[in-house]
Amino acid sequence: ESANEFQFQKDCLTQKLRDTESRNQTLEVQLCDLEQCLESNQREREAFRKSLRSLLELLDGKIFELTELRDTLGKLIESS
Amino acid sequence: ESANEFQFQKDCLTQKLRDTESRNQTLEVQLCDLEQCLESNQREREAFRKSLRSLLELLDGKIFELTELRDTLGKLIESS
Amino acid sequence: ESANEFQFQKDCLTQKLRDTESRNQTLEVQLCDLEQCLESNQREREAFRKSLRSLLELLDGKIFELTELRDTLGKLIESS
Amino acid sequence: ESANEFQFQKDCLTQKLRDTESRNQTLEVQLCDLEQCLESNQREREAFRKSLRSLLELLDGKIFELTELRDTLGKLIESS
Predict the structure, then answer these.
(1) Which of C68, D1, D38, D41 is most exposed, with the fewest beta carbons within 10 Å of its own?
(2) What is the complex's ipTM, to 2 decimals?
(3) Is C70 helix (H, G, I), strand (E, B) or coil?
(4) Are B59 and D70 in contact (CB under 8 A)?
(5) Chains with 3 or more CB pairs closer than 8 angstroms to A?
(6) CB contact, 8 Å: A75 with chain C?
(7) What do you get for the CA distance between the two ends of chain A, in Å?
(8) What is the C-alpha separation between B32 and B39, in angstroms, rounded?
(9) Residue in D53, D59, D77 nearest the CB of B56
């Protein structure tokens, strides 16, 4: 009787442990996915920032060229 | 004797379950943190994209104004 | 006889003088026209130069605004 | 007496003719100078207009390049 009772409690605990371990695995997989997602986001963000920096340099170049053009026009007006 | 054996097994299982549940909680907290981190990143990304869109509109305006200036210069040259 | 001769010479001179004075008047009218033409050109040139200077100032403004936009983009990239 | 009178008139006319012819020459030189001045102005104006047209083409190029840069930024924002 007592042996049955013990067996029942043991089975109960074993089942609960199995469920919890299974839940654990699921959580670990989710955590791993999220971490990869975050890393991937970080890489995208860096790549995006790098592209924007290239664009900023291009814009710098255009502003410089417009300033040269402006100076050429200024000299042209003064010499005319 | 058998009762002692059972008790030992039960204690073992209980301890293991406790550890696994504790590990579970830790994982759930980490998962929650990561999810909030991802959401926060997503919000920042959206805000950044919104700022960039505003900048794009400003750039459109500047290009439009430069084009008007170009047309004014063109007409001036032809009328001179 | 000598009187006729003198009269002939006098008429000749008078005619030549008249022709030269007439040519003179034509030249003075042409000169006056050319001077007005030059003045008008000078005025046009000044007006043109003034328009170009206004355009130059507009271009300065656009370059300044593009530089502000560039700085905003630069800060945005660094803060992201 | 009458001969003297004639001679006097003839001298008078000759002098006047000489003055008028001299004035004529002066006017022709001035006219020639002004015509050369006008032609020179015209050539300068053409050269100026040509320089401005080159500048207009440069400005067209810059506007085109800014528009390309704008499109690159637009695509970057949408792809991010």
Answers:
(1) D1
(2) 0.85
(3) helix
(4) yes
(5) B, C, D
(6) no
(7) 117
(8) 11
(9) D77
